[in-house]
Amino acid sequence: MAINSNMKINGERLWDSLMEMAKIGPGVAGGNNRQTLTDDDAKGRALFQNWCESAGCTMGLDQMGTMFARREGTDPDALPVYVGSHLDTQPTGGKYDGVLGVLAGLEIIRMLNDLNIKTRHPIVVVNWTNEEGTRFAPPMVASGVFAGVHTLDWAYDRTDADGCKLGDELQRVGYVGEEKVGERKMHAFFELHIEQGPILEAENKDIGVVTHGQGLNWLQVTLSGRESHTGSTPMPMRVNAGLGMAKITQLVDDIAWGHAPHAVGAIGHCDVYPNSRNIIPGKVVFTIDFRHPDKAVIAAMETQLREGAEKIVEDIGLQMEIEQVGGFDPVEFDKGCVEKVRAAAERLGYSHQDIVSGAGHDACWINRVAPTCMVMCPCVDGLSHNEAEEITQEWSTAGANVLFHAVVETAGIVD
Asked: Sheet holding 283-292: strands in order across?
């Protein structure tokens, strides 16, 4: 049996599942705060597991707490087709970032059950641990361990702002599995995600066929100056770490504009010490995020940053340390998987365009160990990592339908 355009997911059921999951870890402005390995994350995991087991799946759990819900195929020797994303959110996150990809994977299983369709390859729905990296930096930690980018011990040793270790929190919430991370072999991996950018909505496209992912470079900068009274310290005698950060902020923006149109750069996190109204900052710690689809350009941006920052701190009299705290090379997704996504969009009559993902995703690491591709749907005004993040039910349904077709065609329908 071949997959045909009449085979579609239940869009209302998917939407209802999204809204039900959003009740766990509600934010203060309509979104979600379900940060990784918190009590609310554990509640979201439990609900997901209950839904998967009700759909006839068996649940696997690895040492990083990543969840694998498996629907069996007819061929015991066929490698599974994996599909999924993440359930953790930013502190002020939306209801769809990551969650759509996990629950759309579950909807694939539910619809296959409804249609009584068997596939040759098993299908496994994945919830990767700590994709966001907001509590335990860097992002995409569990998929990074799976792909051999990080070691398990290194990941366990990541700490949050309160000094809690990732490994200890995994134990606390009860999600440390016995399965060794990375032992699973994949036939392919597909991830559906909201775009987190404005292109698809602006171009009035239903589907983004993700061909590449931007590379990312996270640098943590520590500037050390001298604390002194804001009122009684003469301007020529100040060693103002905050001033250094301000000038470097402008430098980062200039560097990104200098590599237009694909480069982006910003300072997203900063700590100012002692953070008092009448004390000149003696120390600041901040992170720089550079991204571009060309590895050489990312390297050039870092070189410019280091050279320009050295001049800034010399002029002010500051000491500076720069440490890379995260990053990955640009990604080219598997051409075969990309073509399955493109063909699915055309078969279903959805408007679509090729797109480069500006954000990092678990698929970027898994692409190292298995044929991988992503599907994107629009989001309103391109807004994400914000409680005001919004999509329409029609967009989620279109994305999930394309995902369904790509995954099921890859898994192979059995007559």
From this structure: 264-273, 283-292, 215-224, 319-328
